[in-house]
Design brief:
Blueprint: H1 2-11, H2 18-24, H3 28-45, E1 50-56, E2 68-75, E3 83-84, E4 97-103, H4 112-122, E5 123-134, H5 139-146, H6 159-168, E6 171-179, H7 188-193, H8 195-204, E7 211-218, H9 247-259
Parallel strand pairs: 1-2, 1-4, 2-3, 4-5
Antiparallel strand pairs: 5-7, 6-7
GO biological process, one term: methylation
Organism: Denitrificimonas caeni
Protein name: Methyltransferase domain-containing protein
Length: 260
């Protein structure tokens, strides 16, 4: 009976948690994490340009991208997005988007593999995919196990595993950075006192931040030159006629046998 219950727990389908995640970001700790993640996202989005940037299931207000003309959001119906869709079926054409932003989307996806494939399918060659996720090896990762909030259901995938998935999908990692080194506390006073920890860890680029940001570029496959097929005449490959032995050659062979 216990084994059956355990098997049912493993095979239980995951619920869409986009709404509860957005509600958590309205709390004091959620706003603290939002500010620290915005410090990573906004300078990065300043470097990109093009026509469209796409945010899937944005838990907070979308970070500004001044050099991109249109910002589009899509995702679950519980969020205030421009287009509603399922995570494995986006109403976006292939190779149509310059930048796709997944802010904690993989942490709460029903299938992170399917979501990442769908996002990669929409990025144009030479475009970028920006992923922000929660890091398990940090103060925030410890908070995930102690809290009763929605973060108990988060995957918190390791950055190395996501980088491997991106390589399979034809992406090349350009940047990996960390943030939110301070523990999330309700006291603003203690948060300010621990500001030195944030500055020191960011300067040392320690891989122990509460969140990470991965920036990957979709590789452009070069066109292979079309080599014209060379048709070789079969007649040219026929063996040539061997000349018959002359009397001089026969006398030479007899002389060699005599010398032996």
């Amino acid at each position: 009976m216990k084994l059956r219950r355990f098997a049912e727990l493993l095979t239980r389908p995951r619920k869409v948690l986009a709404g509860p995640v957005a509600q958590w970001f309205l709390t004091a700790k959620g706003q603290q994490l939002e500010r620290m993640e915005r410090e990573l996202l906004e300078p990065q989005l300043l470097r990109h340009f093009g026509s469209y940037v796409l945010h899937y299931n944005p838990p907070v207000a979308m970070a500004a991208a001044p050099s991109i003309r249109h910002q589009v959001s899509l995702g679950d119906k519980t969020l205030s997005v421009d287009m509603q869709c399922q995570e494995h079926r986006w109403p976006v054409a292939a190779d149509a988007v310059d930048v796709v932003v997944l802010q904690h989307s993989l942490d709460f996806a029903i299938s992170p593999h399917a979501l990442l494939r769908e996002a990669a399918h929409c990025v144009r060659p030479g475009g970028h995919l920006i992923i922000v996720g929660a890091h398990a090896w940090s103060f925030f990762g410890l908070y995930r196990y102690l809290t009763r909030s929605v973060w108990r259901h988060a995957y918190c995938l390791p950055p190395a595993r996501i980088i491997d998935w991106l390589g399979v999908l034809g992406f090349c990692l350009e940047k990996r950075s960390y943030g939110a080194y301070r523990p999330l506390l309700n006291s603003v006073r203690w948060q300010n006192k621990l500001g030195w920890l944030e500055r020191l860890a960011a300067r040392k680029k320690a891989p122990l931040g509460g969140c990470y940001m991965l920036v990957a570029r979709k590789m452009v496959h070069g066109a292979h030159p079309q080599i014209q097929s060379m048709r070789i005449n079969v007649a040219k490959l026929r063996p040539s006629v061997v000349a018959a032995k002359t009397s001089h050659q026969k006398n030479f062979e007899h002389s060699e046998e005599h010398d032996r």
